[in-house]
């Protein structure tokens, strides 16, 4: 006799299939906690000198305990070495064909600020706050963002064009996320992107 599958069977099987591919709850919680810690550390790094930031302050901001930060990252220096890296952000920020890269970067920058209060590159603006750590931030930014963008471009003066384009993006990020320009914040992200991206793209495309 053929097996009869009911609607309940399908739903249960669907849940089972989904849970088979989903990471265990403990792993999801661990990744969420790590992400919250990174976000908290970035938030504090944009407002305080590196030397003034304590693990307790990061923990309080992230809603976790300081020992949990030590468990995940080992120590403060290891945590902030990740916070000061642009590698993972650049992977996403630069993830588009060159002929559509400006639109992608502008949209990614504004969406991150509007939806998550996060920006892939803006923390470089706060490098002067951090003394020697600021030099690390600058070096990372130069290699992981500006140089990677330069390597994507063809034609003359690729390095200059890349740095000019990044400068335009930083300016937009400052005006939208820090100065919080009233007209910018009142305008749809799609419209800002449509107006701003062509100017950035003109720098990415060789004349």
From TrEMBL:
Pfam families, A to Z: TetR_C_16, TetR_N
Domain HTH tetR-type residue range list: 31-91
GO MF annotations, alphabetized: DNA-binding transcription factor activity; transcription cis-regulatory region binding
Superkingdom to which the source organism belongs: Bacteria
Keyword Membrane in record: no
Family matches, as InterPro entries: Homeodomain-like_sf (IPR009057), HTH-type_TetR-like_transc_reg (IPR050109), HTH_TetR (IPR001647), Tet_transcr_reg_TetR-rel_C_sf (IPR036271), TetR_C_16 (IPR041678)
DNA-binding region extent: 54-73
Name of the protein this chain belongs to: TetR family transcriptional regulator
């Amino acid at each position: 006799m053929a097996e009869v599958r009911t609607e309940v069977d399908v739903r249960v099987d669907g849940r089972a299939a989904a849970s088979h591919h989903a990471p265990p709850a403990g792993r999801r919680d661990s990744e969420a906690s790590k992400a919250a810690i990174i976000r908290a550390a970035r938030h504090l790094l944009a407002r305080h000198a590196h030397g003034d930031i304590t693990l307790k302050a990061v923990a309080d901001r992230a809603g976790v305990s300081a020992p949990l930060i030590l468990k995940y990252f080992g120590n403060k220096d290891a945590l902030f070495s990740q916070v000061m890296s642009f590698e993972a952000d650049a992977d996403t920020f630069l993830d588009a064909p060159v002929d559509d890269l400006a639109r992608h970067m502008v949209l990614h920058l504004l969406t991150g600020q509007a939806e998550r209060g996060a920006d892939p590159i803006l923390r470089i603006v706060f490098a002067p706050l951090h003394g020697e750590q600021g030099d690390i931030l600058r070096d990372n930014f130069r290699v992981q963002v500006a140089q990677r963008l330069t390597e994507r471009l063809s034609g003359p003066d690729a390095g200059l064009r890349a740095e000019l384009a990044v400068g335009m993006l930083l300016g937009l990020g400052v005006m939208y996320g820090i100065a919080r320009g009233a007209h910018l914040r009142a305008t749809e992200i799609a419209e800002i992107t449509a107006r701003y991206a062509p100017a950035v793209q003109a720098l990415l495309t060789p004349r």
